[in-house]
Design brief:
mainly beta, 1 helix, 9% helix
Length: 197
Amino acid sequence: ELIRTENILREDIVRNWLKVGVFIHAPESVRIGPDVVIAPGARIQGPCEILGASRIAAHAEVEPFCHLNHVDLGEGAKVRSFSHLENAVLEAGAAAGPYARLRPGAVLEEDSRVGNFVEVKNATLARGAKAGHLTYLGDAHIGENANIGAGTITCNYDGLKKHRTTIAARAFIGSNTALVAPVTIGEGSIIGAGSTI
């Protein structure tokens, strides 16, 4: 009975969002929680789950095989396939994935993006910043238009407590770099590939 009731509720929720102008592809495989708010014109592709107090603005897009819980997507934001987001914010035009992991406190400001196999926790990417692939950004602030190369890690934990990394605007971090927090990378700095700072 519980399973049957849950499916009736799921179908009702999806049908109601379709009625107000949300595009839902493969609606039979989409789960949307009762507290989710979606603007007309948003696009959701199943299978996926959108739970908690998530908010999705107009023209935002959630691709298949994504899990969102307490996520705020700004206008035109995009979550690409196989991404997992929890307590995260994507502002207008920001993008995550495919295969991105945004943990609590992750904020992608306007037009910033993280790509495949990038994990972000308690960190902000300012406007236009990007981390394309294979990166961990934890307890960090990434400045406007900074570029984070593949394999970069913010080493935020010393075994006892967490420390912050600050990367200023337009910094270029080369691939396979370890940033041992606490550390600050100045505006426009260039870090060569394979460095430990």
